[in-house]
Design goal:
One of its GO terms (molecular function) is oxidoreductase activity. α4 (104-117) runs parallel beside α5 (144-166), α5 (144-166) packs parallel to α6 (199-222) and α6 crosses α10 (303-316). By secondary structure, the protein is of the alpha/beta class. Helix content is 49%, strand content 12%. It binds NADP nicotinamide-adenine-dinucleotide phosphate.
């Protein structure tokens, strides 16, 4: 009996000790934003703010006193998030606006409403994103994942640029991923299934590489306007991002994520840092992780690729000639 108990304790120790050490390592290496920045009088939009990283980013801005616009596609989930944020921060200036980034018409309607009803925009966080789904096309004929993660935010940023410029100094923060390191873009096949066995992960990686290339080219085009833009990677965070995986895979990933991933609040820190810290001023176009400068994937340093992706995106989101002039 004693021998059996000892064996169980030994096995548990072999499992629990490395997990605990890993957890301590994760806590020690997670970057935290310590900026005292007050956001009273400022307005921030966070896309995909009803869950995960976006939720905690929005909650932080509300704590700092901002007017916070939760830009979400599901009204019920967004209203629930709004209620929680108001309750946690005591800031009643939190509103829901509906946008589906996988629809060009929805992005246009959202931007029109913001431009007509908001007097200012100081921070735009392009946070919403999805991953782990089968390749499919949207009603606009674009890849669902590419439109949600890149084309939608590209169009949205374009249509909000005038308001951002009016409120300069202002910021655009794009949420990418370490997965961008594995991106391999084919500009002639941005909406087709990638030519790879690892289709789903390559599809996601490509969208996240686009986020970094977009930021670099946006920074170049915004130079001198007072609007700065940064791109971040949040690390591995336990969120709803892989909700589209088949059940078995999802359960396995979630079990692993409980050990190896940050929680949502930890995952939001670099988004918050890039949005409010004084440290990043003058570093427009740069890439951050763990609240410090992060190594760019080599493909993301290709300026020519960034310019060509921009031009291709202008065409695919059907920007008018006049709209293109906003960011020439
Ligand atoms: N979690 C990670 O480990 C990790 C790592 C690297 C990068 N990221 C990036 O972090 C960002 C936030 O993801 P998360 O991990 O916090 O995942 P999440 O909990 O699933 O949050 C994603 C948010 O985006 C929204 N969204 C998805 N597609 C949308 C669309 N077409 N229109 C409008 N909103 C849409 C979701 O809305 P619904 O609730 O309605 O689905 C949700 O609010 C993403 O850009 C992701 O790529 C995450």
């Amino acid at each position: 009996m004693t021998c059996c108990l000892m064996s169980i304790i030994t096995v548990l120790a072999y499992i629990l000790v490395p997990i605990s050490i890993f957890k301590i390592f994760l806590k020690l290496t997670t970057g935290w934003d310590r900026s005292p920045t007050c956001l009273v009088g400022k307005t921030a939009i966070i896309t995909g703010a009803n869950s995960g990283i976006g939720f905690y980013t929005a909650q932080d801005f509300a704590k700092r006193g901002a007017r916070v616009i939760l830009a979400c596609r599901n009204r019920q989930k967004a209203e629930e998030a709004k209620f929680k944020i108001i309750e946690a921060t005591g800031n009643p200036n939190v509103v829901v606006r509906i946008v589906d980034l996988s629809s060009l018409a929805s992005v246009r309607a959202f931007a029109k409403e913001i431009n007509e009803t908001e007097t200012r925009l100081d921070i735009l966080v392009n946070n919403a994103g999805l991953g782990g789904m089968e390749h499919q096309l949207t009603a606009d004929g674009l890849s669902l994942i590419m439109q949600s993660n890149h084309f939608g935010p590209f169009l949205l940023t374009h249509l909000l640029t005038e308001l951002l410029k009016k409120c300069a100094p202002s910021r655009v923060v794009n949420v990418s991923s370490k997965a961008a390191d594995y991106g391999k873009l084919d500009l002639n096949n941005l909406n087709g299934p990638p030519d790879s066995y690892f289709t789903k992960s390559r599809d996601y990686a490509n969208t996240k590489l686009c986020n970094i290339l977009f930021t670099a080219e946006l920074a170049r085009r915004l130079k001198g306007s007072g609007v700065e833009t940064y791109v971040i990677q949040p690390g591995l965070v336990k969120t709803e991002i892989l909700q589209h995986l088949p059940l078995i895979n999802r359960l396995a990933v979630q079990a692993l994520a409980s050990i190896t991933h940050k929680n949502g609040e930890e995952g939001a820190q670099t988004s918050i840092y890039a949005s409010v810290s004084k440290d990043v001023i003058g570093k427009s176009g740069e890439y951050f992780g763990e609240c410090k400068k992060w190594r760019m994937p080599s493909a993301a340093k290709n300026k020519e690729l960034a310019r060509k992706l921009w031009e291709k995106s202008e065409e695919l989101v059907q920007l008018t000639h006049q709209e293109r002039q906003l960011l020439q």
